User: Fold histidine kinase from Symbiodinium natans.
Amino acid sequence: MGTAQRMDREKNVVGTIYIGQDVTELKDIDEWKISMMAMMSHELKSPLHGIIGLSQAMLLDKSTAQKGSVVMISNCATRLLDVVRNLMDTSELLHRRNRPLARDPVHLAGVAEEVVLLCQQAVDKRGVSTMKPSVKIINTLVEPLPVIEADAYRCTQLLYSLVSNAIKFTHKGSVTISASADDVEEKVTVYVKDTGIGISSDNLDRIFEPFDQEDRSEKRGYEGLGMGLALCREIVHQHRGTLAVKSQKGKGSTFQFTLPYKMPVEDKAEGKGYEDDKSVSLRVPATQTRQSTNISDLSGGWSNNSAPSAPVMGRAPTLDPLAARSTSSGAERDGPSKNLAGAQYLPDVGEDSQLVVLSVDDDMINQQVMTSLLQSSQYKLQVASSFGEALNYLLENPPPALILLEVMTPGLSGPDALRTLRKKYSAEVLPIIMISANGDKDTITRPSSRVGNLSTFSA
Ligand SMILES: Nc1ncnc2c1ncn2[C@@H]1O[C@H](COP(=O)(O)OP(=O)(O)OP(=O)(O)O)[C@@H](O)[C@H]1O
Ligand SMILES: [Mg+2]
Assistant:
């Protein structure tokens, strides 16, 4: 909405002209884009899990010829899965649905340390490290800094996006991470300063839009979808913080975000946290370099993308979501116990018998992946393509050693199916693990790539 004063011939103000634009349609298109993105991402993930799972199962088979090609297939699919996950993550954040931020005590120095490690491990699409010998990473963000209340995971994601951008767009010089705290305003500001290619002032606003990049041409030489800064902006907004950039073409850029020490009280009732897997797959760290420099002295000229609120700090992105899950909370992972001997429905496991794992999932590729994974193990896979089929199996057979229950089970949702089963079978008698493609809370996430992990549950 814009306004202008209306004057008469003598230049007296006689009124105000209001100019407005109806943005309802634009907002609808935005909403549609976001939900399309979520739907597409979801549909893309299932076949990718299949490709990753099957190629990893092939690699377990020692006789597999052309191992190198299979590894490449697996790596490509994993990479694509990362893109899809990031898409889902962004669309979820933009939707701001059902997913309130966690309220973790966040040590920003720890976050910075973790981010540097992650950047050191990151590789590009050719599998080459994204670090450049000509670019020095300088992390001056050290304690003592106040511990802030924020979403630790989102904080890591935020700083990682900024630092990885700085590295990507800098060919010579340095990337410096620093911070300052304001005890009066109770805010902490983090700076990521680089000596890279810079951004022209005309483009400073649009780079924060989803899928927008300064160079839109097809010949642009940098990887990426243009999602990182949109995600950063949303994270910062949700924490009631601010995000700003100052840049000079050819000289470098400084991005800064400010987060309050405490998240606003009105959000507290909603704050439940992100316990699901939000892994950003990156190759894992080696060592970390840290050097002391002064906190950046920044003033004026900021293109400000601040808005409402703030999150983030650290759970490390992981390459193996299943492994991560097996050690974290969640999932019905009361695990097939060795104590089955006392159970009412003891499976008759003789010397030559195999323990049965009942997999409830209508996706044949998922089932095939599971079959391949369990092939050389002590488990025999029994497949049910709906919850009804699973119930029939249970009526006619002793309880299996373990049920793997897809969250989106045809016939009944995973959680409802779980509740139904629990009325009849205790966790000791019938261990159940819920699996999901989406990294939902209390599940393990596909691709489940290792039989070893299953044995953790069944030991
Ligand atoms: N430190 C920087 N120096 C120069 N340009 C930058 C910097 N950070 C961001 N940009 C510009 O802003 C654009 C948007 O950044 P953003 O992080 O959203 O996307 P991306 O890095 O291109 O892709 P993605 O983050 O999805 O991998 C970049 O494409 C680049 O043009
Ligand atoms: Mg980026």
Summary: The radius of gyration is 26 Å. The longest strand covers residues 173-182. Confidence is low (pLDDT under 50) at residues 267-301, 306-352, 448-459. The CA atoms of residues 202 and 214 lie 9 Å apart.
